[in-house]
Amino acid sequence: MRRSDRSGRSMRPPRKPWHAPRLRLWGLVSLGLVVSATPACGPGLDAEAGPPATLQLTVRDGDGAAIPALATLRDQDGTGRSIYSPTQSLSRMAPRLYGMLDSAALLDGAASLPVPPGKWRLTVSRGPEYEIFTQDLVLQAGAAFGPLDVTLERAVDTSGFLSADLHVHAARSQDTTAPLDGRVVAAAVSGLEVLGSADHNSETDYAPVIVAVGLEGRVASLVGNEISLDWAHFSAFPLPFKPEEALGGAPPVETLPDFQNPDLVFAYAHGHPTQPVVQVNHPRYENPPSYFFTYWLDPEACTSPFAFSYDFDVVEVLNGIEVREPYLTTVVGDWLCLVRTGHRVTATGNSDSHGLRGLSPGYPRNYVYTGDDDPSTYAEARFMQALRDHRVVVSTAPFVTIESGDARIGDTVAATAGTLQIRVVVQAASWVPVDKVRVVVGGVVAHELDVPPDGRPRLDQTVEVATPTDTFVVALAYADAFLRRDVVGDIDMPPFAFTNPIFVDADGDGLVTPLRGSPSGTGTPPASGATSVVPPLRAFEIGRRNDDCTYELEPGPGR
After folding, report:
1. Left if phi > 0, otherwise alpha if psi is -120 to 50, otherwise beta: which for 312?
2. Where are the domains of the chain?
3. d(CA 547, CA 359)
4. Where are the alpha helices (H) located in 319-395, listed in sequence order?
5. What span, in angstroms and rounded, lies between the C-alpha atoms of 13 and 446?
6. pLDDT tens digits for 505-539?
7. Exposed / middle / buried, residue 34 (Cβ in 10 Å: 0-12, 13-18, 19+)
8. What does the alpha-carbon distance between residue 555 and residue 33 come to, in Å, rounded to a whole number?
9. Which CATH architecture has domain 162-395?
10. Domains 53-152 and 162-395 belong to one CATH topology
């Protein structure tokens, strides 16, 4: 019989079956959902093709400075092959040059790259803030090709924002073999500036590895722990790293059953002298069970029949494997419901990457406004305060911001006239499709704007929104398309980005009173008549994921 609190609510929901994260993938195999008719990774290379060619490559930014970059080589039909390293490993091919499956990480933007002879499609990238370079090549055995000079222009101005992935796994996780140096190298070549560790029930500090590979000033480390229980997964960061302990300072595994309810987890995490935040990871996962799913959170009222605690700080709205429907609509709705009812939690988006290239670190990512976008002057306290203050844009690749006068994301603005002017800016590199942006007021779509296919920025438009009562405003940019796999890794991921709120004090009393009940408003709905905040994207019954070039998940309807 379950215990109850004084209100009569059960302290704990009924237990549900749980499997380790690796088993949730192999569980799909038993259902017959893994197919190999169109593998993303080819069978390998022909050992009799002859000695490798040499591709001489230099990569610079628009100012002529050498930059870290990722060079990906695929068959001209898009199939990837394990050229430079076996599954989940990193190969050091030369000083400052590393191989990952079908890609090479050029830490100094220059390399003489060995490539098996044949026909290839070369893609050079540096994350979503930069343009990419693509060229088909025919390489002869034993011959040199080049020098090939590549310029990657910066297309997105993220001044004042640091890009961060706050949920990345490495070898300390029982379901991951990705090496720590592979994590740091992948972050550098994708433009990530803060790398947050989230190993299961263990703490990891990337700082010594960053120094060892010579990337100090490029990437900063944030120590965390994904507290993985049989009823939910939470990340806490920053945490004090203790290298002398087996788990880096995390609670011993045998004590995890003591965390029987969320209040105990949150009290443990918040009790550290580093003042960690608690992030609810993949809150609607069913396997492994996660917090909102286990506790039956009502998506309309944000209430639970059990002893649900709201004492968390962050909710992971975008999770790399779950940027799909219906999960996306549900979790965006959960977050908006929490904000609407007075629970000011910050929304984030993270890769939850367990592999090197299948689901790459930084897709999705967070742009955290600290006022200083130089990772060499990264200050953890300032970064964490910005996160607590909701100064975050979440993105798979586009970049969208809003402002109202001097008010920026995370600020509160007075709007006693009953209306508010909102400036919306959308930026994206030319390889990133963005079709629409929605302005959402209190959980209701007030405007849907067309985004031009080119231009820098793509869109800079001011709209008026009705604010008769205290409320909040966010913007959401998207396209019904997929990002390039040779850039983001072997997973179907749509261009999708949204802001955290600007809060609106409509009556001028200095407070933002929570809204009650379901969202309603007088905004102009989109021409499509859609009522969901999340637009209709290509839906999947099952997401497509390929972390290690060993399997492919069958696409769902609409593919």
Report:
1. beta
2. 53-152, 162-395, 396-533
3. 6
4. 327-340, 380-388
5. 37
6. 999 999 999 987 666 544 444 444 445 799 877 64
7. middle
8. 9
9. Alpha-Beta Barrel (3.20)
10. no
